[in-house]
């Protein structure tokens, strides 16, 4: 399993800061030189893009030979992906420069996996390789590395392998920052407790309705979130209509877009984690996901559909879910679940049922919570469910976390027809 640690990097003195800056600036200068040469070769029908000069001689003493090699490799990768995109007709320009000398270069470097080390603890630190000339100039010993303080908690303290470190100056946050890719072996991951199964129904009013083979039903409410998303969308549209001719955006509009996305992503991340942890506790090892059922209903216009897709960023949510599940040794599988949202679990009819807001009713006498019923029907299609369903658990978002609502689902919302009829 591959993950990335992100952390802030703080030089311990002005001298260290200057050294780090020079290291990153020289890296950018090297990148720009390589890139310039490649662009020249690209324009010349007699030249080969892959054939570039030897840069170790001029940059090795500043950056260290392995960092020179990493930047060459990174640039080669950028060109390779440019050619791959070009082949598909999706290229968006040749690889660019990391700033320029006159206006300032973008401070950035890539350090080979064996040329740095991170130590996590009370005083976490990062040690990176620098070239001999910089060592001499700044008084580092022959075998010494530049030692920097690390701030922020690494998500992945224990791993089996570390990859190439990306170290850069983050202009927005006004701090140095690092991305450390790590590989985590399966032996370090949590294993499923049993072989149970869960099925999810994903929508907008109820973000996730879930039924498990252990008889648990969970309902994550999305109504308030969705409403706020729509409010922001309306506000964006209003501001757009007020723009002068020829202008298509403004600072305020961009900031609303960002806020809308941030809010959604935050709730989605938290939902994926809350749900997966809960399912792990239930002994679930496989999660089936169906696609957006309530938006397929006829009362949703095409426009509303598009907005819901936008709201959910469905693909992104499935990726998040799969990513979180992987940490628990669980797998997520997507299945088409056409008709499950309309199917009556009692008589199997898909044509006679009616959905009114959250309730699904059928002339045969069935009445239940529409999304929970859909997830249960979906689950029964994937596997056999032997246990009876417990009372559903309703979860609400309070802008920070998902928690059980004090008003759990009432009997009318029970999806198990036998139990539902007892209350009447
Ligand atoms: Zn029926």
Automatic annotation (TrEMBL):
GO terms for molecular function: DNA binding. GO terms for biological process: DNA recombination; transposition. Residues 401-424 are annotated as: Disordered. It holds the Pfam family Cas12f1-like_TNB. InterPro entries: Cas12f1-like_TNB (IPR010095), RNA-guided_DNA_endo/Transpos (IPR051399), Transposase (IPR001959). Keywords: DNA recombination, DNA-binding, Transposition. The keyword Nucleotide-binding does not apply. Residues 189-295 form the Probable transposase IS891/IS1136/IS1341 domain. Residues 401-415 have a biased composition (Basic and acidic residues). Residues 314-375 form the Cas12f1-like TNB domain. The keyword Manganese does not apply. It comes from the Archaea. In the N-terminal section; belongs to the transposase 2 family. This is Transposase. It comes from Natrarchaeobius chitinivorans.
